[in-house]
Design a protein that fits this description.
The complex is a heterodimer of chains A (about 700) and B (about 250). Chain A has about 700 residues and is mainly α. Helices cover about 55% and strands about 5% of the residues of chain A. In chain A, the strands form 2 sheets. A 4-stranded parallel sheet of chain A has the order 2-1-3-4. Chain A is elongated, with a radius of gyration of 31 Å. In chain B, about 25% of the residues lie in helices and about 25% in strands. Chain B has a 9-stranded mixed sheet with strand order 9-8-7-10-6-1-4-5-11, sandwiched between helices. Chain B has a two-stranded antiparallel sheet with strand order 2-3. In chain B, helix 3 packs across helix 4. The chains are: A mainly alpha (about 700), B alpha/beta (about 250).
């Protein structure tokens, strides 16, 4: 092609012409090209170095072991976009753009390579090679899909405006960038086809580019060349602008998400970290400063892209409490950005000083810092926010990139309780009750087995040390009048099925769930250690609990204290007994039932079907599902120790859930958790529906069916 | 200044209390103990007086078996500076307590003595009054507010009396006993719990004090309150009225 270059850059840099690609036209264009790439990469490298420095502020946490499980998680959650598709429309939008990015990134390398070498292509991907043709087709296909994704995204952002999103110019700008990248790529390929730089036959594969080329095939070659150059430089500049906007914005997500799914928490969902409380050199316990966060906590804040799925079924957010995990992530991130330079500077200084004078007084170093830092707790994250969480697990189950919010909230609570002794007033009596009498009601620990007076078939471990299953009754089952009935129903069921079991009676202690989730790790560890000792003295191997909170902490957290047991929730165990033919559901229960998923049973421990299975096997039962169920179930409001706290802000969580259940007109709301039972019972009474609707534990319904 | 605070080990009032069949005392198997709630309030008040800017050493004193150290550690974890445990292993009454405390006061010479108004186990409500008499110190019982006045030479105390509040001023050294509404005791932080483990706790055998510990009272017997009879259900109002009239004769 011989062109006379009466146009834009070509005129400036004109030399011998053989290619549409402007850098091939002149040395100056090549220099400019190299400058753009070098600047783009240098700025990006600098930004990433800064981020790396920030990441190093975080405490070490092992998120590297178990390579296979991590890779598997990346494939499922990142590449197959498993969680994204929990919402179809948004899922499709995201997946099309994400998959498009994955495919098109190869093309970007080709694009940059072509700037240097005429007709550059990656090995095997030339336009006349089979794989190259296939890739060309895929590239165009996915670029078209990206455009469809973008249309959905714009439709959502500009017209539909879902409640959970955060609306910003930045988000729209990114979409425009992507749009321009796709369109310019089509035109560049289209014009290369028009100019014969790519074989005509290749146009059958890069179908969308060929179509774009056809749109302007009527233009003169000069005009096309000018247009090509515009596209080329636009593509290049946007490419690097996009790259550098990422670390500076919420779109850092694009870079950190895949690693975030690699560094996922692999321990049980319901397991909180064990604190070292023996270290007397520590002045503070829990998280109150950036330095207390782990690197993964920092990484999580970068990964959040404000999609807001964490809010959708969050019991606190939905009932007007000041808790939104996406906001926590954003606020923390900005706080970290503001404070990190000072922390890095301070650390440098103190490192220099210790190098100079080995016996430097640390106290004087701290007072030298001129910058007064804003408080992470109280200012950045409000105390009401910290106490609003019920630890129901929704946010973590919903987050498409597996950001961990609950452990972090508990770490804040740990600071408030352990270091500051600052917590809602109601918690004081709970802590003292647990401390003195090992139950949150604070009733005498020697009254624990009083429920058993006059009950048939009660077996105590102290009298029958040879038992297979320990029936861990728990505090609610021992002290709460309503829940004592469930304990009694369970004793009947275990006896009816001929199970070898025993209970600890007054030797039993609180499982500690509420203490730990209210941030009182010190108290929790005392309670857990005491129980583990008692369990191990009786050589306990298998445990049945009627409370999902005890179930969770004994199963998932007691191993931290040397307590390793086979733990069953009573719904699991009852189903097992039915399946083994040991329990016969003889009597019909002619009722309309619905089942409320307890968070610590469902979301946290993935027990969804067993309770439903039991109900559906009882003849006469007409089963109805609430709109929010299974992993989308709505918390009763009692988790995370909230059972014991007043609900001062917003509307009541238990009322919200009760109203949902009442819409089904059930005779009975079935539950598998003593806390849920109390909360829903209260809700029913609030609504004046106690004559019509009962809240019953699964075991009570089963006890009716077997008698 | 120096503040001396008492911290009595008491049986947890939330526990089910059982009297031994021979009436010599209560069954202590599996019993939980705690710091007397009124003493806890007294400790808290001492800490608050210090936190208001008064330089003060807070010494906490307990009387009882070796195990009573647990309750003193609780007070130390709340923030007291050191503890004295007077070991005694036989029956003693409020007169003995007052005599022991007098001895401790003579040694420690505190400016202010804070006690609980009574212990929730025996409910005697005598020791602090007797102590004041033995020492000849002014005293203010049932305090619901304490304020140091006159540059820490006096204490203005609001007392909860029947039907109202009474405010009196006492010259230090004085004895003030804490009532329920004086404050809400703090919950110890972990750094303070850890520090408390290392704070000095001096054990003093009661014999070494050189005082006569013969109680003025004699323990005779303990009996359980009569158990309530189970109620009955009546079929209708007429039967109820009839029973109230003729059986219980309340109408």
């Amino acid at each position: 092609m011989s062109l006379t270059h009466q146009n834009l850059l070509g005129l400036l840099f004109a030399e011998n012409q053989s290619s549409l690609i402007p850098t091939h036209n002149s040395i100056l264009a090549m220099i400019l090209f190299v400058v753009v790439i070098a600047t783009g990469l240098a700025v990006f490298a600098y930004l990433m170095y800064q981020r790396w420095q920030i990441l190093k502020i975080g405490k070490y946490e092992d998120r590297f072991s178990n390579f296979a499980a991590r890779i598997k998680n990346v494939i499922v959650v990142a590449f197959f976009q498993k969680r994204i598709f929990n919402e179809l429309q948004a899922g499709l939008m995201h997946a099309l753009i994400f998959w498009g990015f994955c495919v098109v990134s190869v093309n970007s390398l080709t694009f940059l390579g072509e700037g240097f070498i005429n007709g550059f292509h990656l090995p095997l991907l030339g336009p006349d090679q089979i794989l190259g043709k296939f890739y060309g087709f895929m590239k165009d296909l996915f670029e078209v899909l990206v455009l469809i994704g973008l249309i959905i995204a714009f439709y959502r952002r500009l017209i539909l405006k879902p409640k959970r999103l955060t609306y910003s110019f930045e988000a729209n700008l990114i979409l425009i960038f992507i749009f321009l990248l796709m369109i310019s790529d089509f035109f560049m390929f289209g014009m290369k086809l028009n100019a014969g730089e790519l074989p005509q036959e290749y146009g059958r594969f890069v179908f969308a580019s060929a179509f774009a080329g056809k749109l302007i095939s009527g233009w003169s070659m000069d005009a096309q060349e000018t247009f090509y150059m515009v596209n080329f430089w636009l593509h290049l500049v946007i490419f690097f602008a996009f790259l550098n906007v990422l670390p500076l914005s919420k779109h850092f997500h694009v870079i950190t998400s895949i690693p975030n799914t690699y560094f996922v928490k692999l321990t049980p969902k319901g397991e909180l970290t064990k604190m070292n409380l023996e270290d007397e050199t520590l002045e503070t316990f829990g998280t109150s400063r950036i330095e207390d966060l782990t690197w993964k906590h920092i990484f999580d804040t970068w990964t959040c892209t404000e999609c807001g799925r964490c809010q959708t079924y969050c019991p606190a957010y939905e009932t007007g409490k000041p808790l939104s995990d996406k906001e926590i992530n954003q606020n923390l991130k900005h706080h970290i950005y503001e404070e990190a330079p000072y922390i890095i500077e301070e650390r440098k200084k103190s490192a220099q000083k210790t190098a100079e004078t080995s016996r430097q007084d640390t106290a004087t170093q701290e007072t030298e810092g001129q910058h007064s830092r804003s408080n992470m707790i109280g200012e950045v994250i409000k105390e009401d926010t910290i106490w609003a969480c019920t630890t129901c697990g929704w946010c973590e189950e919903a987050c498409p990139v597996q950001i961990e919010n609950i452990g972090r909230i508990i770490d804040f609570r740990r600071y408030l309780v352990l270091t500051e002794s600052k917590f809602p007033k109601e918690a004081t009596s709970v802590f003292k009750g647990l401390e003195n009498n090992s139950n949150p009601w604070g009733l005498g620990s020697n009254k624990r087995q009083d429920w058993a007076e006059g009950v048939e078939g009660v077996k105590w471990a102290s009298e029958n040390p040879e038992f297979e299953y320990l029936f861990y009754v728990g505090c609610a089952g021992s002290f709460d009048d309503r829940n004592k009935k469930i304990t009694k129903a369970m004793v009947r069921i275990l006896n009816a099925a001929g199970v070898s079991f025993a209970m600890l009676g007054n030797e039993e202690g609180c499982c500690g769930d509420s203490a730990r989730r209210l941030g009182n790790e010190y108290l929790y560890q005392t309670l857990a250690q005491t129980n583990v000792e008692v369990f191990n003295n009786y050589n306990v191997k298998k445990i049945i609990t009627t409370c999902p909170h005890g179930y969770n902490t004994i199963k998932n957290e007691y191993p931290q204290f040397g307590g390793n047991y086979e733990v069953y929730h009573h719904t699991e165990f009852i189903l097992k007994l039915i399946n083994e033919g040991k329990l016969k559901l003889k009597n019909p229960v002619n009722q309309t039932l619905t089942y409320h998923d307890s968070c610590y049973l469902g979301r946290i421990n993935d027990i969804y079907e067993q309770p439903r299975d039991i109900l559906k096997r009882i003849s006469g039962v007409s089963y109805k599902e609430m709109p929010r169920h299974h992993y989308q179930s709505f918390c009763c409001g009692a988790g995370g120790g909230r059972m014991w706290l007043e609900e001062h802000i917003g509307t009541r969580i238990n009322t919200n859930r009760t109203e949902e259940a009442l819409k089904l007109n059930p005779d009975t709301i079935a539950v598998g958790c003593p806390f849920c039972l109390i909360m829903l019972d209260d809700g029913i009474k609030d609504k004046g529906a106690e004559e019509k609707v009962k809240v019953l534990d699964i075991s009570e319904i089963v006890a009716k069916a077997i008698e | 200044m120096k503040i001396l605070v008492t911290a009595k080990r008491v049986t947890d009032p939330d526990m089910k209390i059982k009297v031994k069949p021979d009436g010599t005392g209560i069954v202590t198997d599996g019993m939980n103990y705690k710091i007397n709630p009124f003493c806890e309030i007294a400790v808290e008040e001492a800490l608050r007086i210090r936190e208001k800017g008064n330089q003060a050493e807070i010494v906490v004193v307990g009387i009882g078996p070796k195990e009573a150290a647990t309750e003193l550690r609780t007070a130390l974890a709340m923030g007291a500076d050191r503890a004295i445990l007077v070991l005694i292993d036989k029956y003693y009454d409020s007169t003995v307590v007052a005599k022991i405390l007098k001895k401790i006061v003579e040694e420690e010479k505190p400016d202010l003595i804070l006690t609980g108004k009574q212990a929730v186990d025996d409910d005697s409500n005598q020791a602090s009054q007797m102590l004041a008499a033995l020492l000849g110190y002014p005293q203010a019982c049932f305090a619901s507010k304490i304020e140091l006045t006159d540059g820490g030479k006096k204490a203005k105390v609001t007392r909860e009396v029947d039907g109202g509040l009474e405010t009196i001023q006492v010259e230090l050294p004085a004895i003030v006993s804490a009532d329920l509404r004086l404050n809400e005791p703090r919950y110890p932080t972990v750094p303070n719990i850890l520090k408390a483990k290392k704070k000095p706790l001096k054990e003093v055998p009661v014999d070494s004090l050189g005082i006569d510990v013969t109680p003025k009272t004699e323990f005779v017997k303990m009996t359980e309150p009569p158990t309530r009879k189970a109620g009955i259900k009546v079929p209708d109002v007429a039967t109820l009225v009839d029973k109230l009239k003729n059986e219980s004769k309340v109408l």
